[in-house]
UniProtKB/TrEMBL annotation:
Pfam families: DUF443. This is DUF443 domain-containing protein. InterPro entries: Tandem_5TM (IPR005915).
Length: 120
């Protein structure tokens, strides 16, 4: 039995890329995109594999949509980011003279090979 879906809406959850919300015919479903661990390596696998839909009611949908990150947590993250940036720039400044000694010519094919090895 085949049927077509005329009107469907897919929404992303803010700050959470693992789940998607699907709205269809005044019903709401949630889908776990990263259920299959191979999708971390091959994200297009989600389009070919069967996904499980979990129906949620309006109250759960409201809770999901109104979830937020507290201002204290945002401030803590911003402070840590600032410190990390500062320490990273300081390390770059200290190691600049050492990196100049490591400058040696390489072949383009060798660079591509190293790039492919690092990706795998």
């Amino acid at each position: 039995m085949y049927f077509t879906i005329d009107r469907i809406t897919i929404d992303a959850i803010e700050k959470n890329s693992k789940y998607k919300i699907i709205h269809y015919d005044n019903r709401h479903f949630i889908i776990d995109i990263n259920r299959n661990k191979f999708t971390f390596i091959f994200p297009l696998l989600n389009y070919f594999s069967r996904q499980q839909l979990i129906e949620i009611d309006n109250e759960e949908l409201r809770k999901i949509n109104t979830s937020y990150i507290s201002e204290e947590y945002k401030e803590k993250i911003n402070t840590a980011t600032s410190w990390g940036t500062g320490i990273g720039l300081f390390i770059v400044f200290l190691t600049r003279s050492v990196v100049d000694y490591m400058d040696f010519p390489t072949n383009v094919f060798l660079n591509v090979f190293f790039l492919l090895i690092s990706i795998i």
